[in-house]
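Review form for a predicted model. The reviewer records the input and the model, then writes brief findings.
Reviewer: anonymous (R2)
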Amino acid sequence: MKKNNIFWISYSDLMTSMFFIMLILFVLAIRYLRINNIELKKKQEVTEQEKKKVKEINDALKNIDPQNFVYNDTYKKHILKIDLIDNKGNIGFPIGSWDISDLNLETRMKLRNAGNNLISKMKDLTKENPNLQYLIIIEGQASKDFWPGNDELSYRRAISLRDFWFKSNNQSAHEYLKENLPNCEVIIGGSGQYGVPRSSPDIPPANQRFLVTIIPKYGEIEK
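Model under review:
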């Protein structure tokens, strides 16, 4: 009988210990879940703030330079509304050309002014939002003349415009951007005669132009 009493006393102590262990684990689990919920809520609040800030900046970008750009809300692109006139007074680049210097002086001055305004706007946005990064996509379009080299031609023209805006005698476009617009990455695209949007009637020299897309985002751009 004595041995039996010892057994039950030991068993009671064991169950009491297990109860306290389970109670401690339960309290720790509740605390862990509460901390996780608080952190999740904070992340959600930060995400909502980021979304709100990006929307504000997108709204500001719509009127980045009304004199030289018109914003297409459907495709979220800025259309450079400068008529491209070559040195002979014809609308558009000379056939097969992608060189900005083949455009007349007045056109080049307008393009330079548009580029300066774009750079100034991006610098202001970077100062106001130093944690925000930007993708700037310069896209060339071509007239719908069904020339098989239009994709490459529109791409080369976009490169030419990028260099015209960001390249100097002493710096490449990459070096200029790294020094002056470190929060911006410029991407080149050529959509040829099939990109969007396109103006109607879609006959040459219509749609021989440039489009600019600016995408604000949080995070780091790998240099």
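Findings: The radius of gyration is 30 Å.
Further findings: The CA atoms of residues 141 and 209 lie 5 Å apart.
Recommendation: see findings above.
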